[in-house]
Specification:
This protein is 45% helix and 13% strand. It is an alpha/beta fold. A hairpin with a 2-residue loop joins strand 5 and strand 6. Helix 5 packs parallel to helix 6 and helix 9 packs antiparallel against helix 11. It is globular and about 55 Å long.
């Protein structure tokens, strides 16, 4: 694959390293959630290896927002990905529902239990879109994936989140500026049991806010209270539309709607 001459030399080097790693693997199954990282990896792997050797697989469960599943389907069509949605059953794992600090381990273990046989049947390696910035967060799911034989090509090539976004923009991928979208269970404080009903409530609440035009947000669940996070620069807009915001969230079953004045912080319930 040839790279645009306008690319920063460092980024071009990382892309070349990523291409070399993928070619060495030969055949890959990309865990494709639709986020910026996995979307870039799925698109780049397909461009590098061809759709016959690069298979994008999306885990579908109550923890995946409905809008995200739909976007994965759209991206697969737009980019010519070989794409398969598969059902995962993390809700059947008591340790996952318990929602302690290792919840993500049990979720990723379930993902690998479903995806690894697909990869084995194709003589492929499961690859995940983990970047260097992810290493600073609490992500026990990475250990579960590693234990099950997955690899992390973006890490091996030295990609940061900024690199992923810059490379995606250069490649013309519309996901280059897509807001981070962790699984819905990440909105639930540790110790509060995860349920299908609760995940659905959170999905509906966030979807309702996106319909109001907000792109980057989180609804954090605290019983009858929804704590809303938006980027700091959008707080005034949220206040200006206070009545619509409150109505949208209350319609999903919350009694109290609060605004976090510290703004949006991805993964802040990990602390």
């Amino acid at each position: 694959m040839t790279f645009d001459a306008a690319l920063d030399a460092t980024l071009a080097g990382k892309l070349a390293a990523l291409e070399a790693d993928l070619r060495q693997l030969g055949r890959v199954v990309v865990a494709f959630s639709g986020g910026a990282d996995s979307a870039f990896l799925a698109a780049f792997a397909t461009r590098t290896l061809g759709a016959a050797a690069a298979h994008a697989v999306t885990a579908v469960s109550p923890s995946l927002a409905g809008d995200e599943e739909a976007d994965c389907r759209s991206l697969a069509t737009e980019w010519g990905l070989r794409w398969t949605p598969v059902i995962t059953h993390e809700m059947e794992r008591a340790a996952y529902r318990l929602n302690d600090t290792d919840r993500c381990f049990h979720c990723k273990a379930e993902l690998m239990d479903v995806v690894a046989p697909i990869a084995a049947a194709e003589g492929a390696t499961v690859v995940l879109g983990v970047n260097l910035d992810d290493l600073g967060d609490h992500r026990p799911g990475q250990k579960a994936a590693t234990d099950a034989g997955a690899t992390f090509p973006l890490l091996a090539a030295g990609f940061t989140k900024a690199d992923v976004r810059a490379a995606s923009q250069q490649l013309g991928l519309r996901t280059w500026d897509k807001p981070a979208m962790a699984c819905l269970a990440s909105r639930i404080p540790y110790g509060t049991e995860v349920s299908v009903g609760l995940l659905s409530q959170l999905d509906r609440a966030e979807a309702a806010l996106r319909r109001l035009g907000f792109r980057e947000l989180r609804v954090r669940h605290y019983g009858e209270t929804a704590r809303l996070e938006f980027p700091l620069e959008e707080l005034q807009s949220v206040l200006d539309r206070r009545e619509a915001v409150v109505a949208a969230v209350r319609a999903q079953g919350y009694r109290y709607v609060t605004l976090d004045l510290e703004g949006f912080r991805s993964g802040n319930l990990n602390g």
